[in-house]
Each structure stands twice: as C-alpha cells, then as structure tokens.
Design brief:
The chain contains five helices and no strands. By secondary structure, it is mainly α. The protein has one domain. Helix 3 packs across helix 4 and helix 3 packs across helix 5. It is elongated and about 55 Å long.
C-alpha cells in the first residue's frame, strides 16, 4: 500500500476548507443570522467576533484537511473518485457536525430548529468540499 501524499492532503484540504468557510460565512450572515443571535442572547452570550471567528475559520480548514485525509485513507478500499469523496465528506460531517450538534442540542445550547438548518447545509457543504479537495489528491509515488 502506498503512503498518503501529505502535501496533496493539505493542498486539497485547504481548498475544501475554503469552500466550508465561504458557505458558513454566507449561511451565518444570512439564513441563520437571527436564530443564532437569539440563541446566544437567551444564554447571555455575546455575538461571535474576533478570536472566536478566527478559531472557527481555522476549525473549518481543519475539517477540510480531515475530509481529504479521510478520502486518501479510504481510497485504497473504495477506489478513487466522486463516490469515495462523498463517503469521506459524509464521515467527516457525521463526526464533525452531526455528533457535535446533537451534543449541543442535548445540553440545551442550541434549539433543534436551528440545528436542523445547520445539519442540512453542513451536509451539503461537507460533501461538495470533500469532492473539491479530493479532486486535487494524487497518491504518493513512494
């Protein structure tokens, strides 16, 4: 079995992370803006700003890298291509969004109506991001 091409994982992951960041910026500043503000206000929390936004930006790039790494890791078993990228995106969405979101809901941090929207758009964004990032991945020649 060939080694994972770390350079290509990072390159594809940065592209995937950029897509995730763009989609989240649009969604957070339009579709869920008021619901998020209301959820934070109910808990006496300030709106997200500054270092918190920076942390989320970095997290989104990490999710992109995780998606492409997952693609690279499962590619020998599932083969190269879109289907495998979709699987990788789904796996990262499941662990990075769904489980974390369900935990936040269980703790009462965010209402189910808000999380339903987040779950929907994040699934699509993760799959699209994984497909874009995976399209740049090439196996290592070693």
């Amino acid at each position: 079995m060939k080694k994972i091409n770390a350079t290509r994982v990072v390159l594809g992951g940065l592209v995937a992370g950029l897509i995730i960041n763009i989609v989240e910026a649009v969604m957070n500043n339009t579709v869920i803006k008021q619901q998020m503000a209301d959820a934070l206000a109910v808990r006496n929390l300030p709106p997200l700003a500054g270092s918190k936004i920076l942390a989320l930006l970095i997290t989104d790039f990490a999710l992109g890298v995780a998606a492409v790494w997952t693609y690279a890791a499962i590619q020998p078993r599932f083969g190269a291509g879109k289907r495998t990228a979709v699987i990788a995106g789904f796996v990262v969405w499941l662990s990075g969004y769904l489980i974390a979101g369900l935990t936040s809901m269980a703790m009462g941090l965010f209402p189910p109506s808000l999380m339903a929207i987040v779950f929907g758009y994040s699934l699509v964004q993760m799959i699209v991001a994984a497909m874009a990032g995976a399209s740049l991945y090439r196996e290592s020649s070693v």
